[in-house]
Design brief:
Layout lengths: L4 H17 E6 L2 E6 L6 H14 L4 H4 L12 H23 L15 H29 L8 H17 L6 H10 L6 H8 L7 H30 L2
Antiparallel strand pairs: 1-2
Helix pairs in contact: 4-5, 5-6, 6-7, 6-9
Organism: Cephalotus follicularis
Protein name: UBN2 domain-containing protein
Pfam families: Retrotran_gag_2
Length: about 240
């Protein structure tokens, strides 16, 4: 069996990604793999941390505040909870810091609990997320079809913006994408727009793609016939 060059390249890229952008270690006899925080993958990183700590049963410090300091009057139960929480906090902090790129650690809290560190990181990337949302919305609502790549690709590109916004907790319904796509098509697609506006039922994304692609193919044929007619007329 011979591996093609494309397959080999894909395997190499995958291995490099796993090596450089994930960390794997053992916690309470559980093998934990966490995607390294690179800046743009905060949501995935946070999910990995929370899931890994939960599976290893050391997530107490991520979901509760630090218990009161022990005193001579502390009960056995309080001492046990304190010990479990402290162990959880050490492991969570170590796991979080180990899975963040070095240049992103600048400015992060150093003397804090795991829960406080997660909150601080969340606030940092919430601001970045808001900026991403603004940029994506601006692109989505200012994009117009210019004929390059075909109308199918144009609609799919708008759906891609929709998906990216959804990952940032901005859920735009399909009807919004359908409206926006139709409103940004050139006048040649006016029949499609009229058909849509005259119907009571909304179109799905697939309905839209099917109709606009069919219309574009029709326009290409009509334009080709006109071009042939003009060329034939000029030859006489």
């Amino acid at each position: 069996y011979t591996i093609s060059s494309d397959t080999l390249f894909t395997l190499i890229v995958l291995i490099l990604y796993i090596f450089y952008f994930t960390v794997t270690f053992s916690v309470n006899n559980n093998m934990i793999t966490i995607e390294v925080l690179t800046g743009s993958n905060f949501k995935k990183w946070k999910e990995d941390i929370e899931f890994a700590m939960k599976i290893a049963d050391v997530d107490l410090s991520l979901v509760t505040d630090k218990p009161e300091e022990l005193t001579i009057t502390s009960t056995d139960d309080e001492k046990l909870v304190h010990a479990v929480w402290m162990k959880s906090n050490r492991i969570c902090l170590l796991s979080m810091r180990r899975s963040i790129l070095d240049h992103l650690k600048s400015g992060l809290l150093t003397d804090c609990t795991a829960r406080e560190l997660m909150t601080a990181i969340n606030e940092r990337y919430r601001v970045l997320s808001n900026a991403d949302i603004g940029s994506l919305l601006q692109v989505l609502f200012n994009t117009k079809y210019d004929g390059n790549g075909g109308v199918r690709y144009y609609v799919i590109r708008m759906v891609d913006y929709q998906i990216k916004l959804k990952t940032l907790q901005v859920d735009l319904p399909d009807t919004c994408i359908v409206h926006q796509a139709l409103n940004t098509l050139p006048p040649e697609f006016s029949i499609i727009k009229t058909n849509y506006n005259s119907q009571d039922e909304s179109w799905s994304i697939n309905d839209l793609i099917y109709r606009v692609v069919a219309e574009e193919e029709k326009l290409k044929k009509e334009n080709g016939q006109v071009a042939l007619y003009v060329a034939g007329s000029n030859s006489h």
